[in-house]
Every structure is written in C-alpha cells, then in structure tokens.
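Dear colleague,

Thank you for sharing your sequence with our group. We've completed the structure prediction you requested, and as agreed, I am returning the results in plain text so they can be pasted directly into your records. Please verify that the sequence below matches your submission; if there's any discrepancy, let me know and we will rerun it promptly.
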Amino acid sequence: MVSRRPQTVGGRPELLQKCYPRTAAPCCRTGSTSPSPASKSGIGNMREGSQSQRMVPALLMLMMATATPAATGSNRRKPHIIFILADDMGWADTSFHGSPQIPTPNLDALAADGVVLNNHYAQSVCSPSRAALLTGLYPLRFGLDGNLFFPSAPGGVPLNVNLLPKHLGKLGYKSHIVGKWHIGCSTWSHTPTNRGFDSHVGYLNHGEDYVTHTVTYNGSCGYDFWFNEQLLTDAYGVYSMDIFLRRAKTIIRDHDASEPLFLFFSMQAPHIGTGQRYFQPPEENRRKFLYIGDTNRIGYAATLDTMDQATGAVVEALYEKGMLEDAVIIFSSDNGPDPIGMGSSWPLRGSKQSLWEGGVRVPAFIWSPLLDRSGAEGRVSWDLMHMVDWMPTLYQAAGGKIDDLGPIDGVSQWGTLSRGEPPARQELLHGFDPTDGSGAYRSGSYKLVVTPSNKSWKNGRFQPAGNVSSNIDVDQLTADSAAAKTLAKLYSATETRAPSPEWRRRAALSCKEDEQGNFKPSDSLYLFDVLDDPCEKKNLASERSDLVESLMKKLNAAASIAVPPGQSSPEPEAYPEYNNCTWGPRQDIVCNKNDNMLLCPTVETSVAAEPFYGSFFLTLLLSLCLVYVLRHLAS
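Please find the predicted structure tokens below.
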C-alpha cells in the first residue's frame, strides 16, 4: 500500500522543528499550554460575540475562507439545517429544564421559541450516538452498540452505509462538519470528506485537549486536528471552541444562500479534556460561575458557557446572512454526562455508558419558523423520539422521499414536530450489548432494563456538585441573550421580553422524592413506568410479569440482529510514533516516541480546574511518567 502523507496547514515554528523537522505536526512542547493571548506557535486566541476579540492567525485563513461571499438569498423551498451536538451534557446541565445552577440563556431562548423534546433519546456513549444520527440505523447493526472507537481503531461505520450528508447532497445541499467526528478514521475513506461532507475542521477521535489538540492513549501521545485531510498544525495553542465558532461563522458567511446548507456543529464542549487538565475555558467564562464553589464544576460550567455563546453567535450569523427565516436548528447532547467529568443528569438515574434514563435521555429541542407555532409559549413535546429519527426527519423536511433512504430504523417526526400530527413512534430500542446480554427496550411508558450486577456502579443518581446562586435571574439572562435579541429582529419585535417561567416548569421532571422506591442495585431485571417514574425508583418487574415477558421478546428480537463488536482499540501500527505523530488514518511515517511523549500536557493544570485526584496522586503520576520516559531514553 502506498503511504499517504497529509499536507499541513500552518507554519513550522522552531519549537516544533526542534523535535520533528520532517513534519509540521507539533510533536513537542515547552512551557505552559494553557490559553494565552499569543501562543509560541504564533496563534492568538479568538473569542466571539460579547467576548473579547483576539487576533485571527493568518495561517488559519485557508480554512476560514471556503468560497466567495454570495448575496443573501430570497425565498427557498429547502430549509437550512443546523444540527448542534453537545458532548456529554446532562439533564441538569441546562436551564431550559429548570436547573438554575448553570444558565444557558441562548439555548433557552431557542427552546422557549421552539419545541423542547422531553422524551428524546440517544445511545449511551458517543460513537454509537453519532452513528445513529448520521445513518438512521441502530448501531447494533454494525457492532457498535455500547462501544466506541478508541483513537485510530480499525474500521468505522461501514462504507456501504450512506450518511445523512450524502443523502442531503442528492437534494442539492452543501454539507459541512465542524468539530468532533469519532465514527471511524482508520483510513481516509472513513473520514468526513469521503462520507458526504464538503469540509471538516476539527478532530477525528475523542477526549482530546482543548488547547494542544492532542490525545494520549496507552502511553502514546498524538496530534489530532484537521482541515479535511490536512493537518492544522498551528491550531496548537488555540482554544478549540474559538476555532470551531469562527469556522462555523465563516461557513455561513461564505455560503450561497440560494442553496440549502447542512451544518453539523459537533461541539467538543462540555466533554472533559485529556489527562489532568479537564477544562480549559477562558477566564472570562470561568469568572461567571465562581458562586458554584466546586472548582471542577466551575470549569465544566464555563466550558458549557462557551458552547451556549457559540450557539447564540451562530443564530446571529444566520440572521445576518438572511438564512434564519428558513432555518431548522436542532440541539441535542450525544449521551448522558460523565460524573467524573462533572456533568449531572439529576434527577435521573445513571450516567454516560449506562442504559438508565440519565445515560440515554438527553436535553434536546428543535427551533424553526417552519414549526407549528400555535398554542402556548414554550411548546414541550412528550412524544417518543430517538437519535435514529433525525435522518428521516430532516430528509423529509428537506423535501426528500423517505423511501429513498432504504431500510432504516428511524421514523420521520417532521409531521409531528412541524404540524402537530399524532406521535410517529411508540417503541424504541435503547441498546443491546451482545458481549454480556445487557439491554433496554421502551414500549409506551414502560421500559425494560436487563443488566448484569457488575454494571451497577453506573446506576446511581448524581446531584450537581457545588452551589446555586440566588442572585441569578435566568429569565432576564435569556431575554438579554444574543439568540433572543436576534429572534426579536427576525420577528420585527421592538423589544425582547423574558419568557414566562411556566414553560420551564413544563419541561422539568418530577421524581416524587417523598415516595419510597424499591430499587435494588443487585437486581438484574427491571421494569419501570418512566412516564410516572422517570427516575426509575420503583421496579415493577415482579408485579407485571406479563409486560416483562412481552418486552423481553422484543428485546430478544433486536438481539437476534446484533452484530458482535469489532476491534475498538488501535493496532500497533496505528500509534502516533508510526503515523507522523498523529492519531488518524494510517500514514506509515515514523517519528520519535520519546519526544512525542512530551507533546501531551501532564504537568500543567488548567486555570479553571485543579487535578481531580489531588496533589499526592498528581505527584505519583508525574513520577511514573518520568520513570517511563527515562527508561525509554536509556533503551
């Protein structure tokens, strides 16, 4: 096989040439890698909206200009589709569900004017959810249920499965992805621009540092930041959310508004960063949340705030381009939160990587002038919806015929969402893991959960860490948000008004904390009425054996089509030291592993978050790393 060396975008600063003169990949570092006004690679940090403006690096201009600006368009039949996907965001991590600890005013403004999806489900972990969204298929059909791709693992979503951008392309759409990919990148054929997207700026794997854009896995560190198939080396040192927002705004600005746009804004926030750094938000965001008290929760809130601000800035950009009046904007998390990452699904049970409600029931809404706007302010939908439904829903919204998509698991919800038609779905598969037999199935209001007892550590209920401020008026913050002010312009309103608090109460969940439940972590079979008991406190399995039998048959039917998971960890030749110091498609370019180890941050701690494990464990970790490096230098 002929090796394929990617081109690089950016300069070759002395810091990087010192270790790897053959490549512009930043394979070593010195000093701090926290966000700074100007990094050693010559890139200034960038903020948008109400935040301070910072220098745009000239060497990133290639990715910031994709076409000549076009005049704003006139009426069009196909809507512009903007899908904003958060990473590891929990039910209690947004104020549009009534949680006051972390205000999300821009999200709230769109949610209050759109439809809050209170029965919206994802897969329990990131790769399967993204695969479900982009294929309309349950990921168990290709061995991905409950599994995820570790850096540069072989395979990916099968190449014979067409993704959403490929289908939309047949309808005349231009499709762009900004941010995280994470559904396979072992070959170039698996990467975004070979799966239907016209461009990609972001990373291919997961769990990377917000500033260095590096990933450490099994002791190997590699760079992972790309513009299509080119390394964006001078992104090193620039806060990723700044880059992603500027790229999203550039796509909108340069888009020919007479053609339909699909923008998949796949956020890094609020996922934790790599190693001990956790969160690295700008100080101006962090200062907003000092009242929380818990250092790591402050970092999480500030990181989430950058995502909320980016959402408002995208809405502004769409309006300025004349595209907002024909837009469909969807917001969702890819799965429940990781408590170690300081997210919270309270009051729901469970978290990321579990089939409890807190792992799969995610905050979501849809906004569009094309929706039925009759009825009370702040429409809240309790209709059942799953991530696999978005492909047929958006394809139909774009004017496509559902039959053209072929056999899929998703059902179109466009009639339900836009015209108030009867619910399109009554049942769904939450997941099935063929390796241990665990799974969950929902029918009507009842949910069956089968789980081995060794997974019980994921079944807790995790309250948000830290404090809540009594001095925050979330409704007024929402009215003052960029999104709310932009919507007022769209509707030609003379002022923005705070929405009625009633809509938030309708979107909140009640878990009847005063009632005693019978939940036992040692049980392996559960049945819940999640409409009456969304927090899964009362196990009805012994009372309703008829329902258990019925749902078990449906779960077993789903299990019969499950494909065993493939290899999710990388092969030895996929590690950065054999691939130009990167985690990505195979390149067969050797670099020095010992020097490459210096790339990933392990010493510095974000200004927004202290090490989770405390100083003793940090000292121990650093000592082990030093021993490791010295041994390799001596060998």
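Summary note from our side: The chain has 17 helices and 19 strands.

Kind regards,
the structure core
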